[in-house]
Amino acid sequence: MRPHCPDFEQDLVLLVGGELEPDQVARVEEHVRSCEACAKLRARLERSQALLATAPIPRISNDEMKLMALRARASGGFQLRRRFLAAAAVILALLVPTVTYFTFQPTESGPRGCDTIATPFDVEEVP
Ligand SMILES: [Zn+2]
C-alpha cells in the first residue's frame, strides 16, 4: 500500500467538502474503492469535518473586542506617521535643489575671476 496518492489528495478534500462536480465524484469514488490509502484518508477527512461541524464557536468578549479595536487604531497611527515621513522626504527632495539653484545661480558674465585667467590668446596678440 502506498502511503498516499498525491494526485487524489486535493480531490479527496474537495469530495468530503462536497465541492466536486458529479463526474469528478464518480472518478474519485472509483479510485477510493481500489486504493486503501485514499480510503483511509477519506475516512480521516470525514471524521475531521464531523468534529469541526460540532465544535463550539468561541465567543469574543467585549474586552477582547476593545483590545482588537485599540490594536487596529494603533497600527493605523503608525501607518499615518510613515505616510507623513514619506511626504516630508519628497518635499525636501524637491525643495533642496530648487533653493540651491536660486541661491547659487551663475551671473551672465560667468564666474568671478574669469577675467584674470591667462589664455593662449592673451599671450600672443594677433596684429
Ligand atoms: Zn489512492
* Main structural class: mainly alpha
Q: Ranges with pLDDT <50 over ≥5 residues?
A: none
Question: Number of helix segments?
Answer: 5
Helix/strand order, N-terminal first: HHHHH
Total domain units: 2
The small molecules bound here are: zinc ion
Give the CA-based shape: elongated
Main β sheet profile: none
Q: What is the number of strand segments?
A: 0
CA radius of gyration is 39 Å
Can you give the mean pLDDT? 82
Instruction: Please bin the fraction of helical residues.
Output: over 70%
Which percent band covers the strand fraction? under 5%
Q: Cα distance, first to last residue?
A: 110 Å
What is the secondary structure topology, with strand pairs?
Layout (H helix, E strand, L loop, with lengths): L5 H11 L5 H13 L1 H19 L7 H42 L16 H4 L4
The structure holds zinc ion (ZN).
